[in-house]
Amino acid sequence: MEYKIALSKAQKYCAYQERCHKEIREKLSTWKILPEPADDIIAQLIKDNYLNEERFALTFAGGKFRIKKWGRIKIRLELEKKKISAYCIKQALEAIEEKSYLQTLDQLLKVRAKSIKQLNPIQRSYAIGQYAISRGFEPELVWERV
């Protein structure tokens, strides 16, 4: 594929939705773009502001928190899988408001509590807490709220 055509397709791909460098590199690979031209395309995308790691991290973290109700631990792990820098991950996690975070956790715990029918209060509390922890919320915060 010619450089200009690949660049144009990559621009459209990035304009549709925020992307990280890893996703773009994988997409260019599927288009059979060699590593050296791929680096040039990625550099051009960054220069033209189609690709911005910090913006991606903020969007990703905000979306996963608001829509999927993920906690900070799960968001951090997913961003690390996408090879996002520690600085950008830190910025994204700090952008999640503490008040909203705690409200979401409390709401998640209440919804889960309604669905658990166990009679033993210890087992019930444990099941509720484990659910929130599996969603990526910090264990100490979960047990404090349960």
Structural summary, described in words:
With 146 residues, the protein is mainly α. Helix 7 crosses helix 8. It is built from 9 helices and no strands. It has helices at residues 3-16, 21-30, 35-47, 53-66, 72-81, 86-94, 98-115, 121-134, 139-145. The protein folds into 3 domains: 3-47; 53-94; 98-145.
Summary keywords:
3 domains, mainly alpha, 146 residues, 0% strand, elongated, 9 helices
Short overview:
The protein is mostly helical.
Number of strands: 0
Q: What is the domain tally? A: 3
| Shape estimate | elongated
Strand content: under 5%
Secondary structure class reads mainly alpha
Oligomer: single chain
Low-confidence stretches: none
Alpha plus pi helix count: 9
Biggest sheet, open or closed, and with what strands and sense? none
How far is the first residue's CA from the last residue's CA?
56 Å
The portion of residues assigned to helices is over 70%
Mean pLDDT comes to: 95
